[in-house]
Design goal:
Number of helices of chain B: 0
Shape of chain A: globular
Largest sheet of chain B: 6 strands, mixed
Order of helices and strands of chain B: EEEEEEEEEEE
Structural class of chain B: mainly beta
Number of strands of chain B: 11
Shape of chain B: globular
Number of strands of chain A: 11
Largest interface: A-B, 29 and 24 residues
Mean pLDDT of chain A: 93
Helix content of chain A: under 10%
Radius of gyration of chain B: 14 Å
Distance between the termini of chain A: 32 Å
Oligomer: heterodimer
């Protein structure tokens, strides 16, 4: 089983709909992240959480919200989806430790908004 | 603005050749520079990383070269193999106190021809 699991893997929806992307992890990491990947732009950080009570905005948080339901679960919501939110979304986790810890990514959710 | 600029956008190399991907950064506070490798349908995975106190780091066929004065770093893949065909992202972060926030480059799609 994957250590970082994202659901759904693919989603097609319409403008104005509310969408939730879910991420769960079995790595026991405290830190979790949501990124979006767009061609030619790389990965950009949307939100990150260093523990259950800690939520922080990233580079591009407008139009998104998150919820950290437990250490192992971090969900991303689009309250009213718009076409320019069509992208590949990744959840990642990292350990809390000395120095920079590697981030471990899920396999992504491909989201299309019509 | 893009704080980490990556080039080229795509690269084709013959098997056995050397693949070189370059990144430039602006923020002198960055102190951690990882490279991530992403295969189709998968999330990125840490390949190799360097800190600015060294000019080069080698792991197998993969080498990072770092030029602090020029604010540039590059990934060299020696004896490139078809299995190296993937998208490569450079990244940077600041705060040796482990902020966990990565700024990614735009990505380079590498194709190694047999």
């Amino acid at each position: 089983d994957a250590d970082v699991t994202q659901t759904p893997r693919n989603r097609i929806t319409k403008t104005g709909k509310r969408i939730m992307l879910e991420c769960s992890q079995t790595k026991g990491h405290d830190r979790m992240y949501w990124y979006r990947q767009d061609p030619g732009l790389g990965l950009r950080l949307i939100y990150y959480s260093f523990d259950v009570k800690d939520i922080n905005k990233g580079e591009i948080s407008d139009g998104y919200s998150v919820s950290r339901q437990a250490q192992a679960k971090f969900s991303l919501s689009l309250e009213s989806a718009i076409p320019n939110q069509t992208a590949l979304y990744f959840c990642a986790t990292s350990d809390l430790g000395q120095g920079n810890q590697p981030q471990h990514f899920g396999d992504g959710t491909r989201l299309s908004i019509l | 603005q893009q704080q980490v600029k990556q080039s080229p956008q795509s690269l084709i190399v013959q098997k056995g050749g050397i693949s070189i991907i370059n990144c430039a950064y602006e923020n002198t506070a960055f102190d951690y520079f990882p490279w991530y490798q992403q295969f189709p349908g998968k999330g990125p995975a840490l390949l190799i990383a360097i800190r600015p106190d060294v000019s080069e780091k080698k792991e197998g066929r993969f080498t990072i070269s770092f030029n602090k004065s020029a604010k540039q770093f590059s990934l060299h893949i020696m004896d490139s193999q078809p299995g190296d065909s993937a998208t490569y992202f450079c990244a940077a972060s600041k705060g040796s106190g482990n902020t966990g926030k990565l700024i990614f480059g735009q990505g380079t799609t590498l194709q190694v021809k047999p």
